[in-house]
TrEMBL record:
Organism: Salipiger abyssi
Cellular component GO terms, alphabetical: cytosol
Annotated ranges, domain Glutamine amidotransferase: 76-176
Entry annotated with the keyword Disulfide bond: no
Gene Ontology MF terms: GMP synthase (glutamine-hydrolyzing) activity
Protein name: GMP synthase (Glutamine-hydrolysing)
């Protein structure tokens, strides 16, 4: 099964030397599932010819806001709607979660409660999962057809299921502790309050449930369900 990765952000250069770009992180997360991957760097203006260029699609995170005026946003939203209509499975993470909701009629805004960074608890029907987070933006109004399947203390719509079409999550199961430490060191200062950065760094040694979300993604690609 071929998964098309739509890259909507770039890893800071100082971190990319060690981790690679976001598509490489997702390839590691989904490794061993029998998938082939092809990446289109949407953030640099590269778009696939259409939904049939892959069997399933994944939209990465980004430092950009879904509501910002970039020349690639509108074409990406059109592609999202075309993938949705095609019935091919679509997965979105962080910015991907947000842009899919926006493209389908929802709303994305900066959370007035500020940032969420580092290991964060998300409530799913089968229990809580600890997963990395790094965001201020979030979905604030649901699009038609979206079902809420996870929430957090500071994020009401943390995971959305569009039955038969898409599964999207706000947290970052593709991030490991070393990468988040890199964000704390190189992207956080002056942007995220220092006390939040310090608290996130203290929690980095905790064991995460990220593989559970990776398994959900794989199941959704293959079977159209997350459980």
């Amino acid at each position: 099964m071929k998964i098309g990765i739509l890259q909507t952000g770039l890893v800071p250069e100082i971190l990319a030397q060690e981790t690679g770009q976001y598509p490489a992180m997702f390839e590691r997360l989904l490794g061993g599932q029998g998938f082939d991957f092809q990446t289109w760097s949407v953030v640099e203006g590269e778009l696939p010819p259409g939904p049939d260029a892959a069997d399933g699609w994944l939209i990465t995170g980004s430092r950009h806001g879904a509501y910002e005026d970039h020349p690639w946003i509108a074409p990406l939203e059109s592609l999202i709607r075309a993938i949705y209509d095609s019935g091919r499975p679509l997965v979105g993470v962080c910015f991907g979660h947000q842009i899919i909701a926006q493209a389908l009629g929802g709303k994305v805004e900066k959370f007035d409660g500020g940032w969420t960074v580092g290991p964060t608890l998300y409530r799913y029907p089968d229990g809580v999962k600890l997963v990395q987070a790094w965001h201020q933006d979030q979905v604030t109004e649901l699009p038609p057809g979206a079902e809420v399947v996870a929430s957090a203390e500071r994020c009401k719509y943390a995971a959305l299921l569009y039955p038969g079409h898409a599964y999207t999550v706000q947290p970052h199961p593709e991030f490991d502790a070393a990468f988040v430490q890199g964000l704390i060191d190189h992207r956080g200062p002056g942007v995220v309050p220092q006390e939040q950065l310090d608290a996130a760094a203290e929690k980095l040694p905790l064991q995460l449930d990220s593989p559970d979300l990776g398994a959900q993604f794989a199941r959704f690609f293959k079977e159209g369900r997350i459980a």
